[in-house]
Structures are given as C-alpha cells and as structure tokens.
Amino acid sequence: MISAANPILPGCYPDPSICRVGDEYYLVASTFEYLPGLPVLRSRDLVRWETVGHAIDRAGMLDFDGIRSSGGLYAPTIRHDGERFWIVCTLVDPSDDARGGNFLITATDAAGPWSDPIWLDADGIDPSVAFDESGRVWMHGTRLARNPAWHHQTEVWVREYSPDERALVGPEHVIWRGAVNGVVWAEGPHLYPIDGRWYLIAAEGGTEFHHAVSVARADQVTGPYEGNRANPVFTHRHLGRGAGVIGAGHADLIQAPDGSWQAVMLAMRASDGHHYPLGRETFLCPVEWEDGWPVFAPGRGRLPETVDVPWADAASPPDAWQPDDRRPGAVPPDDPRWTSLRVQPTQIATVESDDEGVQAWRLPVRAESPADAGTVAFLGVRQQHADLDATGILDVSDLAVGETAGLVVRQSEDDHATVRVTRSAEGLMLSAVHRRAGGEHVIAQRTLAPADTVRLAVRSRGYEYHLLGEGTVLATIDARELDASATGGFLGIWLGVFATSHGSEPRGHVRISRFHYEPSDSQVP
Ligand code: 6LW
C-alpha cells in the first residue's frame, strides 16, 4: 500500500470532476482564461495523474478574445456514456452575458479530439450530466434564482437532453436551492443514479471559507429532493482559520471497481487561514455509505493530509506515466503544463531547435502587455508548490529597442509581478515591477552589461516571491497581495515568460532557451 499526499493535484485545479472507464479514472478542472483549456487527466489509482490532453485545444473552438481574468472556462463535468466521453462546461464573459454560455463536447478518446461545442439553451453555470438506466440524458446546472424572493440566490435545475436533437427538451425542474437556511450559492451540482435512487451532491456557501457540500436524494431524477438532515455533510468552515486547509467543497463522487467510494473536491491550503497563492486545489476524500447516505471522511470529518491507497499496487501506472507535478527541472516546449492566455500557445509562439537540437519556444513580442485582456505574448505554467525556483534563461538578442521580456508571477491583468529586461539604445535595463490593483510600481531597477542572454528567476518561499536577475535578488513581493483572497477572482498563481512592446509596433522576439521549474523540499505552504 502507498500513502499519497493530499491535494492529489496541487496548484490551480479547481472544480474537479471525475469519471471512471474500466480501471481508469479521468478528471477535468476549470482553467478560466488559460489555454489549452480543461486539462484531461488520467489515473489508475486516483493519486498519480497524467495529463493526456486538453478538451479545448484548437484555435477557434471557443472565443476568448478580451475575456478578463477569472472569466473563461468554469467548472466542467466529465462523464462516460459507455461509448463516448462527455464534457459539459460554461464559457463565461463577466462583461458580456451574450457571449458564451453552457456547452457540450464529446470524444471517443479522452485525449481528444473533442468535438466542436454544442451550445445548450440554459443560462447559469456549473452544468453537469447524468445518464439513467434507460439511456435518457439529464442535464443539470446552477443559475440565479428566477423567483425574486430568492434574489441573489441560485437554484439547481434539471432538464432532459436529446442527443438526436442536440438540444434540451421537455420541461425544466428546479430541484434544489441549498440545504441551509439563507444559503448562498447552491452550485456545482452533480446527479447520480445509485441503487434505485437519485442523489444530488451540491456545493454551497461560496467557493471560499464558507464552502460546503450538501446532499439530497429523490426517487425520480426530477425530484422532489429530500435533503440529508446532516447537511451540510462536509465542510471545513467550522474548523476555523487554523485548519490549514480551508474552503473544502464542490465535490464529485466516484465508485472504484471494487465497489468502494471516493470524492474529489476543491480546497485551499492557507497556512495563515486566509491566503492561498496556489489557488483552489484538488483533494481526494474517502466516502462510505450509511443508511442510504454518503458520509464524507467518515469518523474524521476533514480532508486527510495523506490518503492511503491500498489499491495502488494492483493499479501501478505504466512506466511512461509521470505525474506532471513530480517532474522537476526543465519544462520543454512539448510539456503539457504550458499554457497561454486566451489563445493556444501555438498561435503566439513557435518551437525551434538550437544548435544542439534542444527545442525551445520562440515567442514574438506583442504590443499587449500582461496588464491587457487581449492576446498577450505569454507562456506559463501553474505554480504547484509553495517553495520552488522558476528560472528562465532568455535569449533577448532579438528584442528591439523599447521592448521588454521577462518572467511574470501572474494572478490577473491587474495583479502581477514581473522581473524583466528592456532594451535601450545603450543596453539592457533590468527591473522588478509590481502591478497591484491596476497600479504599476517599479520596485528596483539597474542597468545590465550588454548581453544576448539573461537569467531571470522567481524564488517562491512560503508567502514570499523573490525576483532575481542574474542571480541577485532585486525585489521581494508578498504573495498575500497576489492571491485571490486579496485580489478577488478564482485563480491560483501562474509563472511564465512574457514579452511586450508596450503598445508600439512589435518587431522582436524572445527565445526561451530554458525554463526550469524546481520545487524545493518543503512543498506545503
Ligand atoms: C465555479 C462555481 C464557483 O463555477 O466558482 O463560486 C466558479 N463558485 O462553482 C469558478 O470556479
């Protein structure tokens, strides 16, 4: 038997959804404005995951143009109908309700290709899908309540979906508004047919400190649903700020081939009880059934720090499987961790080989900067460890005068920190800049001797980001000013490379000769 660390997916993997096909599990999570979107991960033991593809991996599948941070792809659900995988998800543009909405994509292979989206005539977010024994398909999701008495509250709806008509059909049923009186944000619903009944798992309380899991059951998929008297059946909110892990909720259930049950859900590691730069991460939680109800973390009532995996030996992954977060060192261009903003990485960058045959990204400069919600010259990876060194060796010999390239610690357009070089007629200017709530603060600046290559680094230690240029710490940024509890939004930190001409006609490019992501020993904030 092995014991594995919880979270099972560290870093920004919120709103996890899981399904099983034979002895393989598949998981998806939200990715907001980052592309490729919706990573599809596979595991045989629920704790060692490999990214096999991304569901939104082609230019033009969805329109992300201008979508600001924390808009984009929310809370997907993955299911398998016996023949095909289904993902239902929402594209959200908070500034334009007319764009996006709920959609369905399907694939025979989870690695792709995924179909183009079929748009669903349903507003709101957090769609999910369930198949009944007769093969009927039941879509469900969350939206703002139509009843004015429930102003600012949400309700869970269910409606049949016709695969032939590629549309929702029949009447809509509102089945749930949350378990607790005065509840906010009943959301993230998932319906399951289990032992002749229908079970609803839903989040409530909002995806922060008061997040919780409630459960209800009914004889028919359309209800009426009876809430469990123990609701919310799982939460960390009563543990207080000292719990270390906060905000547990948004669960999805899965049954193993041996009949045992687990749930995946999101939660945040916040050592000070408030701040979580790594974002909302995916945790595993044991589930047992008692008296016809699921009990989460039985006998314990909180997410375990390590999960025992008695079934791991029998389910050893093939040798080639290498969990993304345990793959330290160089991040080559074909690594599935690379993401860009609002466009696919290959739409803004190309891969080149150097003289020794080592592949590297060539990133043309763009007029936009990381402060813009447009197409930014950005390539980055999730921060998955509190303590790590991210190092970029950047060939800046083709930067034009006035152009800037560097590393960014990114929360959003308005909140990020950069360590960067700007080419001037005299040489290179090295600077550290903190953009905070939309205001830009130059923290340190010095000239560098002319050079073709610069070495820039972000050293994260607990709640501090040290920004280094050529091995020297230029500035230290407090991570508590960059995390979502300080800035708003739904995201964890991304670390990456950017290049901008500050609005002028771009001329140059930067070559990411090396990008290293090295976790250091302590990995828990
Ligand atoms: C997700 C929803 C939520 O769709 O956050 O506040 C959204 N709740 O369940 C983004 O993760």
UniProtKB/TrEMBL annotation:
The record marks 126 as: Important for catalytic activity, responsible for pKa modulation of the active site Glu and correct orientation of both the proton donor and substrate. GO terms for biological process: carbohydrate metabolic process. Pfam families: GH43_C2, Glyco_hydro_43. Residues 312-321 have a biased composition (Low complexity). The active site is at residues 15, 187. The keyword Chloroplast does not apply. GO terms for molecular function: hydrolase activity, hydrolyzing O-glycosyl compounds. PANTHER family: BETA-XYLOSIDASE, BETA-XYLOSIDASE-RELATED. Belongs to the glycosyl hydrolase 43 family. This is Xylosidase/arabinosidase. It comes from Microbacterium aerolatum. The lineage of its organism: Bacteria, Bacillati, Actinomycetota, Actinomycetes, Micrococcales.
